Amino acid sequence: MSNLGQFDSDFYQSNYTIDNQEQSCNDSNAQGNLCGSRKQQADEQPQPASFVASEMLMSPGYAGQFFQPASDSDYYSQSPYIGSFDEEPPLLEELGINFDHIWQKTLTVLNPMKPVDGSIMNETDLTGPILFCVALGATLLLAGKVQFGYVYGMSAIGCLGVYALLNLMSSSGVSYGCVASVLGYCLLPMVILSSCAIFFSLQGTFGTVSALVIVGWCSLSASKIFISALNMQGQQLLIAYPCALLYGLFALLTVF
């Protein structure tokens, strides 16, 4: 039994005492107090500027709007760009396309005896001439003749020749666009002749007579428009002759 008692005393023997326990408790309490003081100091520190700004923005006294500057009515009223879009002309007018003038020029060509308005005919309008050139090439294509290159080539060279001739004959002069516009509009009767070639052949007496009539029609309309637009009274036959030569080439393409 004595050995057992000695074993128990040796087993439970330790250097740990009550004083050490009290000291460890004091250390843990001190550490807790230190953590608490640090937490209290962190709570007492001011919040970042972003949070302060957000609180200020969300305060009831703030009457502004986020990311929207205050409008200045005086600045917008004095701006030169206000109302400028309402004063702009339509797009077709800026492009020089006037359907009323196109219709009047077409009627003038179809009726050579109709009085000509020189102010309208002196405009550089290429919408109708391009349309009639394409129509002439299309009708020739339907008749089995691919002549687009000849149509465009003879039109450009013929307009250049008539342009040079009119500038030599008239005192006021004329632009190349005006010449091309008048000669292009007067190509409309030739489109009618080429449309007839789709349904029957023009290689005969009827076709020859029809071609001569159409050439005279085109040259008469073109010369009348030129003398009215350029004030070249008494020179209609001199202008009609080169125009008849030009339209005679288109008649040869149509008939043969």
From TrEMBL:
Q: Which domain of life is it from?
A: Eukaryota
Record family assignment: Belongs to the YIP1 family.
Localization in the cell: Golgi apparatus membrane; Membrane
| Compositionally biased region (Polar residues) | 22-34
| Segments of this protein annotated with the region Disordered | 22-48
**Domain Yip1, residue spans:** 111-252
Provide the topology term for how it sits in the membrane.
Multi-pass membrane protein
* Name of the protein in its database record: Protein YIPF
Keyword Transmembrane applies: yes
Provide the transmembrane region boundaries.
150-169, 176-200, 206-226, 238-255
Q: Which organism is it from?
A: Daubentonia madagascariensis (Aye-aye)
The protein's UniProt keywords, in alphabetical order, are: Membrane, Transmembrane, Transmembrane helix
GO CC entries: Golgi membrane
What is the predominant subcellular site recorded for this chain? Golgi
Keyword Metal-binding recorded: no
